[in-house]
Design goal:
two-stranded parallel ribbon, alpha/beta, 254 residues
Length: 254
């Protein structure tokens, strides 16, 4: 797909991969919209990227998703691309006493959110001559990370959902792409796993996004930069060995 002159929405676009996607896609001459939960962060994005369109919306809240759809239908009916990027990643010890109100928040944001938003916006995308849905999952969808169990489960679910969605839309104008980042140098990655990830190299976020955009332009179904290629191979030939190797990197918080 030619990535210029398109109208693109990026969820979770106030920092990390989402913000870098917005930046690079705007530089290519696209109209870019981003969502985020925090008004202050959205204001900061507008200062950094003049001309961007921002929407305060929580993808884990079905009511807010419905309101977002209504606003987009009115203001941006020619939406071409949806990038489901919003997500959280937490270090969770499953042997500790959990807070049941928060335990599955990664599923609500990183799995249920993309499913619900896609269902709402598919109606708009199907009206375009060519359209695209990009689901940002993770290399951990292929081999889980023991200290990020709910995140890994959410991304594995998103991986399965994306494959099913692609199959159901195979004869339509809507292409379905999955971006599976490796460990990426973002605040989300470093803040929650600061102690565990000391000495571990991660892919620079601008490099990751260049891979993503190139893959979208080349109509790749699955974009697997860097270490994710290795994880994909090992998930087929030696999944238990690879999971054990990854688990050696860190232990759950007490």
């Amino acid at each position: 797909m030619k990535l210029t002159g398109k109208t693109i929405i990026v969820t979770g676009g106030t920092r990390g991969i989402g913000l870098e996607l917005a930046k690079q896609l705007m530089a290519l001459g696209n109209t870019v919209l981003v969502t985020g939960r925090d008004a202050v962060s959205l204001e900061a994005v507008r200062e950094v990227l003049p001309g961007i369109h921002t929407f305060q919306s929580d993808v884990s809240d079905p009511e807010q998703i419905t309101l977002l759809y209504q606003e987009l239908s009115s203001r941006f009916p020619t939406l071409d691309i949806l990038i489901n990027n919003a997500g959280v990643m937490r270090n969770i010890n499953l042997t500790a006493t959990p807070d049941l109100n928060k335990l599955t928040s990664e599923i609500a944001i990183g799995l249920s959110g993309p499913i619900l938003l896609t269902q709402c916006l598919l109606h708009l995308l199907q009206k375009r001559p060519e359209a695209m849905i990009v689901n940002v999952s993770s290399g951990l969808a292929l081999i889980p990370f023991a200290i990020a169990p709910i995140y890994s489960a959410a991304k594995a679910g998103l991986h399965a959902y994306t494959r099913c969605l692609r199959t159901q839309l195979r004869h339509s104008n809507v292409r379905v792409v999955e971006l599976l980042p490796p460990g990426t140098e973002t605040l989300l990655f470093r803040r929650e796993f600061e102690n565990e990830m000391k000495g571990q190299k991660a892919m620079p976020v601008d490099e990751l996004v260049r891979h993503a955009i190139r893959g979208m332009q080349d109509d790749e179904q699955e974009i697997r930069p860097g270490l994710t290629k290795v994880l994909g191979l090992m998930s087929r030939i030696a999944p238990e060995f690879m999971m054990a190797q990854i688990a050696k990197m860190a232990v759950p918080k007490p």
